[in-house]
Structures are given as C-alpha cells and as structure tokens.
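ESCALATION

Customer reports they have been waiting on this structure for their group meeting. Please prioritize. Original submission:
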Amino acid sequence: MSSHSGELRILSVYGQGEGPLAVDGHDTLFAASEMESLSSLAADHSVAKSLNCSVRLVRLEELTGHQGGCKGRPGVLCGKVIPNNANMIVHMRTHSGEKPYKCDQCTKCFSLGSTLRRHMSTHSGEKPYRCDQCMKCFSLGSTLKGHMRTHSGEKPYRCDQCTKCFSHGPNLKLHMTTHTGKKPYRCDQCTMCFSRNSHLKIHMRTHSGEKPYKCDQCTRRFSHGSALKIHMRTHSGEKPYSCDQCTKCFSQNNILKNHMSTHSGEKPYKCDQCTMRFSKNNILKNHMRTHSGEKPYQCDQCTMCFSLKGNLKIHMRRHSGEKPYKCDQCAKHYSQKGSLKIHMRTHSGEKPCVCLHCNASYSDPSNLSLHMLKHNGVLSHTVTGCFD
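Update from on-call: job pushed to the front of the queue and completed.
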C-alpha cells in the first residue's frame, strides 16, 4: 500500500467474480467501513451502473469493507478523493443524477440537504444576514461575505493570463473563457454557441419569442432585463453616458461611442456607389440599402417594411399606441423624439424653419412645406435647419 498521506488510489478494479482488487501492487486494500447504504445504488452487487467514471469499479463487498476493508482510509473514485462513507454516497449522486431532497413548495430537487435548506429561503424570504455598511440583507452568510467586497474593494480572484481581478470566484471562471475562447453552451435550434449558460438562456428567447420583462409604464416587453433597464430611460429621461468633449448626454453607451466620431471627424468607411463616407461600418451597411432598395425589417402586424430596424421600432408604436416621449411642461406624449422636439418649440417660441423667399418662419417643418406651395406650387420637403 502507498504511504502518500494515507490516500488510497484505485489502479485496477474488478466486478464480482472477475478477480482481486489490486492497489499499488497489493490486494484488496480499499477502506470503506459500514457502507451498507451504498447497496441501494448498486445492482447485481456492483456499483458500476451508478457511476460514469473512466475507471473500472469496486465490488460491493469491497466497497462495504467485507473483504479486507480497513477503517479510516479515504476512497478514490474517478480521481476524486472521498474522505468518508457519507461523502462517498453524496459523490455517487454526481454520477447517478439522484436528487433525493425535494422542495415541498415547488418542483425543484437537490442532491444535498444543505442545498435544499438554502433554497427554502427563496420561498420564506428570510434574510438574516445584514450588511453593517448599507441596508442590504442576505439569506446566506457566504453571499454577505461576497457583498462586503463591494465596500472594501477587495478582489482576491486574479486572472493568471492578464491583470484583471475579481471579487467573486465564479466571475473569474466566466472571464477565463475570454482567453480560452471556449463556448460550451450550444443552441439546439441554430449554430450559435455561448461561453455562459445564462447567455444561451437569453438567446433561446429569440426562438421562443418569450419576453418576460414588462415595462410598468407602457405595453413594451423585453427578452432580457438589461433591455428593459435601457428602455425605462425613455420614460425617466435618464442619460447617464456623458460626452467629455461637449455637453451632450446619452441613454446608452453605444450611442455615446457613435457620437464620439463627430468630434474626431474620422470616417474610414466609404460607399463604393457614391461619395458618402461613414464613421461606423454598420452605418455604411444601413446606407447601402438606399442603393439596393433592401428592406429587411418587416412589421408583423401589417405589410410595411423598413430598411432600418430603428424605423420599424418607431412604426410599431402606431400599433401599440406607445408614446414614451413626454413633455415636461404639459401633459402631451409623443411616439417619436423628433415630434417632442418640435412640440417643445410651442413652449419656447422658437421658429427655426425659415422660408427662403419671404423670411416667414415656423416651428414645425410641415407648416413650412405647406407655406412653400404659395411660392412654387410644389410641396417642398427641404426644411433645412428645422431639426438642428
């Protein structure tokens, strides 16, 4: 028997009647006293069917200590060191999938009693662990411990491939996939793969059409919480992303990034059918549809099609009746931001739409277009300056 810290490594294991158990060149030295409960996992006096290991398995007689078993030695199965009999039984469930602990308030089952007890707090709402630096409470002590790092700034989990550090171990584990490129979670309805199970779960809603996150101020629904959070800013007017080169603020970080190109003036993406240039490739892609006439975004409630996703989004408000843009000086609401901007001129008295023939001015570009009929009999759509 090996003397390496008392660990017992199974090198060759036999089923009933197949031969002796050899460990480090000796016979039948597997220690597992009083493990009669393992017999419930076995069939035909063998636990081979209960495990999915890469090693051959022990006879039940050897697991239960009937043939030369000695107390106090840990068992080693599939590379896992099992310190005692109870832990061996628990470990076996990772292979069998057995979950004997059932919640009596929902359909969930668990392999460990302690996991069930933690789960029960989701039903009771009990949160006995309170942070002494803020008002937050938690159902688990370990969750409170992790939360305290948001106050201390402690990030003990460090990536060994870059300089990033994390306050929680699972966050580091997820981060490591950015280095390995591993995407183990695959959609069974398309070819998309994901590094996180939560991302796959969100993606699956594009197939099912599920939109569990509902706005409490309008009829809009969303497939994930972050989209609802961004949408809520259309009601609150919140614009947390501020440009550091001008006074403009934005509700989304990607809109701010696009805006920054107006300061640099860089436009590396050129249309090969006209002289237009663009700061972003996706803007060029959208522009190309003005040449091809492609309108890939179709309304599912009427026959209208659009070249831009944003235009379809605005159009859908005609069907839903949604008017997220509210005037802060009266009770009026609008479906488009531009309509609200024009309306605000009725309060400010601003009239930027000026006739080039007689200097008549208007707050609404449509009124200027009607006015132009007096001069040339043609309804003009040139309303330069009205939206600046």
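Sent to customer with the following note: Residues 22-96 form one domain.
Escalation resolved.
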